[in-house]
Design goal:
With about 400 residues, this protein is of the alpha/beta class. It has 2 domains: about 140 residues, Aspartate Aminotransferase, domain 1; about 230 residues, Type I PLP-dependent aspartate aminotransferase-like (Major domain) (Aspartate Aminotransferase, domain 2). Helices cover about 35% and strands about 20% of the residues. It contains 12 helices and 17 strands. A 7-stranded mixed sheet has the order 4-12-11-10-7-5-6, with helices on both faces. It has a 4-stranded mixed sheet with strand order 1-2-3-15. Strand 2 and strand 3 form a beta hairpin. The protein binds pyridoxal-5'-phosphate (PLP). Pyridoxal-5'-phosphate binds next to helix 5.
């Protein structure tokens, strides 16, 4: 083991089973380890570096803000967060934004808004939030409670009460639950990322959207992983024709700096008042300046290119030896392989390709602007590894 790996193991809490790779530097979709070995980055920091490593426009935006003011607290106005909020509202038709620092916090805000709205409009006993089995909504005690995967819960009870999980695709289960329980909100991922890159069936999404509207139940869409162009739409709910009341996002929004956002529709825009919620770092000017650079580039041409690149990956892998199926949308792809996904990822790593797993799938979340030739090079490696 190298000195770095020894030091890391000695001093950093052992929550991460890191691969023995020390990343030193990178550019775009290529990174280099401390030995100078090149890797193609097919994970982009779990969908965070939307335009790749050290992207010139993002670096320029962040650096310019760094020389002006790095932080001022939310007691004062600063320009980057207002500009970013305006851009997000214009691209979605949502009315207001609350900024935080991570996906879990963006979901915490969404949950607080839903609880307060329901308490005010439907009574104090209306607080239950329904989420889907196999969902992932974060690691705080409340977002863990929202996460529909028991194995994350076991060691940390009691969790925040008021969350119930239903199987995705089962409208009867959702209807029955809403008859027996007062439900404040339904919270979904359009494509469950950590759960195995599992898109909702289009008909189920449509029926769910209509049902919650009829029942005056709020719809929260967790776009932490699927958002900001990842699926070939600005937000994945747009692929499903849904009209959420609240949208949470993070990961790719900041392009590499910590930033979460909770988008509020006109219906709930004034639910939170002065003092109801806050975040010391939320809306940080540097993170928001970087995010403005990211969001300003997510236009129709970029989204069409994300869909095209996704098709390129599919066309190379579809029907190939050792590949069972491909799920996902745009550049959020899950590959079911004959070999265990972890084995494929390790073999790819040895051959200079960094990929992710999600449950039993190999998961790809490359930068939205990954050049076609580099993308094809990485997919060829994955294809060869799966065929062996
Ligand atoms: C990653 C993720 C989260 C948690 O985000 P953090 O920034 O790690 O708190 C929440 N929801 C979804 C769908 C995610 O993929």
């Amino acid at each position: 083991m190298t000195n770095l790996q020894q030091k890391d193991r000695q001093y950093i809490a052992s929550t991460y089973a890191r691969f023995p790779v020390e990343i030193a530097t990178g550019k775009g979709s290529e990174v280099y380890d401390t030995n100078g070995k090149r890797y193609i980055d097919m994970g982009s920091g779990i969908g965070v570096t939307s335009f790749g490593i050290a992207d010139d426009a993002w670096v320029a935006a962040v650096s310019a803000q760094l020389g002006r003011v790095q932080h001022m607290s939310n007691l004062y106005y600063t320009e980057p967060c207002a500009n970013l909020a305006e851009m997000l509202c214009e691209k979605t038709g949502m009315s207001k934004v609350f900024f935080s620092n991570s996906g879990a916090e963006a979901n915490e805000c969404a949950i607080k808004v839903a609880r307060k709205y329901a308490a005010e409009h439907k009574g104090a006993d209306c607080y239950t939030i329904v989420t889907l089995e196999n969902s992932f909504h974060g690691r705080t005690l409340t977002t863990l409670a929202a996460t529909g995967q028991d194995h994350y819960h076991e060691l940390f009870r009691p969790l925040t009460p008021g969350f119930v999980h239903v199987p995705a695709g089962d409208m009867d289960a959702l209807r029955a639950l809403c008859e027996s329980t007062k439900v404040a909100a339904v919270m979904i991922e359009c494509i469950r990322g950590e759960g195995g890159v599992l898109p909702l069936e289009a008909e189920y999404a449509k029926a769910l959207g209509e049902f919650v509207r009829e029942q005056d139940i709020l719809l929260i869409v967790d776009e932490v992983q699927t958002g900001n162009g990842r699926t070939g739409a600005m937000y994945a709910y747009m692929n499903f024709g849904l009209t959420p009341d609240i949208v949470s996002t993070a990961k790719g929004l900041g392009g590499g700096l910590p930033l979460g956002a909770t988008l509020l529709s006109a219906k709930v825009e004034n639910t939170l008042g002065f003092g109801d919620h806050g975040s010391t770092f939320g809306g940080n000017p540097i993170a928001c300046a970087g995010a403005c650079s990211v969001v300003s580039r997510i236009d129709d041409a970029l989204l069409a290119d994300v869909r095209r690149k996704g098709e390129l990956v599919r066309s190379m892998l579809q029907g190939a030896k050792g590949i069972e199926s491909i799920s996902g949308m745009g550049l959020m792809l899950g590959i079911k392989t004959e070999k265990p996904a972890g084995e494929v990822v390790r073999a790819c790593m040895a051959r200079g390709v960094l990929a992710l797993t999600a449950k039993d799938k190999v998961r790809l979340l490359p930068a939205l602007n990954i050049p076609d030739d580099i993308l094809a090079e990485a997919v060829s490696v994955i294809k060869e590894v799966c065929a062996q």
